[in-house]
Amino acid sequence: MTGRRYDPDRRDRIIDACLDLVADVGVAGISHRKVAARADVPLGSMTYHFAGMDELLREAFGRFARTISDGFEQRMSEATDLEGARAAVVAIITQDLFGTQRDLVLTHELYTLAAREPAYRELTNAWMRRSRDALERHFDPVTARLLDALIEGLTIHRALDTEAPLPGSVTEAVRRITMPR
């Protein structure tokens, strides 16, 4: 471990190390000591910057959710018409979300915490709200909610299914949900 007296990025490094460690060993496998070692900071830095592991996890998962949401919003903001919005949703599912094993694991670890702990449910609800807001730039609220559920479901299936998805199935699903009534 290197000695750092002035280290303005220490808190951010701890958060990044926490996310990396959760991706490697899961929430159940982390500890203050392991996060400090991964971040290359003294153990005392953990309690200096965070009241406890729960605060660190909320900060880390909050950063992760914001990062994913930022990419989602960027993709949707580039669409200028219905076809562009449909293509953006397809790209979110097939290219952006859970593009790495790390993101897939972190998302599922967050979902598991949110299923048990209301504080983490606030994070996932804020994430869903941002997604729906981005979708509502192009679709009515009901359609946006359906697309949000489709995005989550298809992304999980694409990540975990042992069979390759049918060609064009994502595009067809988005088209069906977004067809004018």
UniProtKB/TrEMBL annotation:
Residue ranges of DNA binding: 31-50
Annotated GO MF terms: DNA binding
Domain of life assignment: Bacteria
Pfam families for the chain: TetR_C_31, TetR_N
HTH tetR-type domain residues: 8-68
Keywords: DNA-binding, Transcription, Transcription regulation
Keyword DNA-binding: yes
Gene3D superfamilies associated with the record: Tetracycline Repressor, domain 2
Keyword Transcription (UniProt): yes
Protein's recorded name: Transcriptional regulator, TetR family
Source organism: Promicromonospora thailandica
